[in-house]
Specification:
The chain is of the alpha+beta class and 228 residues long. 61% of the residues lie in helices and 7% in strands. The protein contains 11 helices and 4 strands; from the N terminus they run E-H-E-H-E-E-H-H-H-H-H-H-H-H-H. Strands 2-1-3-4 form a 4-stranded mixed β-sheet, with helices on one face. Helix 1 runs parallel beside helix 3 (70-81), helix 1 (15-27) crosses helix 8 and helix 1 (15-27) runs antiparallel to helix 11 (204-227). The longest helix has 34 residues, at 92-125. The termini are far apart.
Length: 228
C-alpha cells in the first residue's frame, strides 16, 4: 500500500495545526496527521528540530518539501491544490484584497483573540489562573477590530469579496476556541460577523478539523486522568 505523500506533524488541538489541516481538507488532499505530544517533548527531539529548528508545530512534509509556519503551509497547499481560494474572482485586485485581509487576520485579529483564548482556556487547563487584566485589555482591542469586520461584511459576503478565500478560512482555528469563551457575545451581537462565522463553522472541512481537535482533547484528558 502506497504511503501518504503529505504528512502533518503536530497536535490536533493546536489552532496552528488546525489551519494547515483546514486547507488540506478544503482542497481535498489526502494527508496523514502524525501525532505528537508536547508534554513528552516531541517537538524538542532532534528528528523534529531537523524539520523545524524553531520547535513549533505544524510541520508539513509534502514529498521532498518540508515547510513550517501555518500560514505559509496554508498558502502552499492552496496554491498547489485549490488556487482559487487565494485569488477570489481571479483578478489582481481580488487577489490583493485576499492579501490585505490575511494581514489583518495575522496582525489585528489574531493577537487579541489569541490572548483571550490563552487566558480563558489554555491557562486554566494547565492549572494556572487567568490574568483578567490581560483579558479585559484584549477584549477592548477585539471589539474595535470586530467593528471593522462588521462594516466590511455588511458590504460583501466574505472579507475579500463575494467568494470564500483563505482570508476567511484563516480565522477559523482561533475563532473556534474564542467562541467557547464567555466573550463569544462579541461576535454574536454583530449580525454580519455572526452570519460569516456560522457559515465558516458549518463547512464540512471545518467540522472535520474540529473533530480532530475534540478527539485529541479527549485522549489528552484521558491520559492526564490515568497519570493521577
Amino acid at each position: 500500500m502506497a504511503q501518504t505523500a503529505v504528512k502533518v506533524y503536530g497536535w490536533a488541538v493546536s489552532p496552528f495545526v488546525a489551519r494547515a489541516l483546514l486547507c488540506l481538507e478544503e482542497a481535498g488532499v489526502d494527508y496523514e496527521l502524525v501525532p505528537m505530544s508536547r508534554e513528552a517533548g516531541d517537538h524538542l527531539r532532534p528528528d523534529f528540530l531537523a524539520r523545524n529548528p524553531f520547535a513549533q508545530v505544524p510541520v508539513l512534509q509534502d514529498g521532498d518539501l518540508t515547510l513550517f509556519e501555518s500560514r505559509a503551509i496554508a498558502r502552499h497547499v492552496l496554491r498547489k491544490h485549490k488556487p482559487e481560494l487565494l485569488v477570489g474572482d481571479g483578478s489582481p485586485e481580488a487577489a490583493a484584497l485576499v492579501d490585505v485581509w490575511l494581514e489583518v487576520e495575522a496582525h489585528q485579529h489574531h493577537p487579541p483573540t489569541g490572548a483571550i483564548m490563552v487566558q480563558c482556556i489554555l491557562t486554566p487547563l494547565l492549572g494556572g489562573v487567568r490574568d483578567q487584566a490581560v483579558v479585559d485589555e484584549n477584549v477592548a482591542k477585539l471589539k474595535k477590530v470586530l467593528a471593522v469586520y462588521e462594516a466590511r461584511l455588511s458590504a460583501s459576503r466574505y472579507l475579500a469579496g463575494e467568494s470564500l478565500t483563505l482570508a476567511d478560512l484563516s480565522h477559523f482555528p482561533m475563532m473556534r476556541y474564542f467562541m467557547e469563551t464567555e466573550y463569544a457575545a462579541l461576535v454574536e451581537e454583530l449580525p454580519h460577523v455572526k452570519a460569516w462565522w456560522e457559515e465558516l463553522n458549518a463547512r464540512p472541512a471545518a467540522r472535520k478539523v474540529t473533530e480532530h481537535a475534540v478527539n485529541a482533547a479527549k485522549l489528552w484528558a484521558l491520559e492526564k486522568a490515568e497519570q493521577q
